[in-house]
Amino acid sequence: MNLELLESFGQNYPEEFDGALDCASLAVTCAFNRWGTLLAVGCNDGRIVIWDFLTRGIAKVISAHVHPVCSL
């Protein structure tokens, strides 16, 4: 087989787990922004939490729903 051809389709994944995003509620759904710097997480308590991957912290919490957020 042509190894150069196979290696061009390879994916780069982290080799180790380097942290966790901690929140008080259960995550139901999530979506990244187009650049991969922000993560929106829809929670079971109706909140939407925006995580900033550059600072590894919460950028914003939106509490606008009473039911679980099912899609973003």
Features:
single chain; 72 residues; mainly beta; 4 strands; 35% strand; globular
Cα-to-Cα separation, first versus last residue: 42 Å
**Uncertain stretches of 5 or more adjacent residues:** none
Structure summary, number of beta strands: 4
Main sheet record: 4 strands, antiparallel
- Secondary-structure class: mainly beta
Strand order of the largest sheet: 1-2-3-4
Order of helices and strands: HEEEE
The fraction of residues assigned to DSSP E strands is 25-35%
Described by the principal axes of the CA atoms, the overall outline is globular
Summarize model confidence as the mean pLDDT.
79
Rg estimate, integer Å = 17 Å
Number of helical segments? Answer: 1
**Residue share in helices?**
under 10%
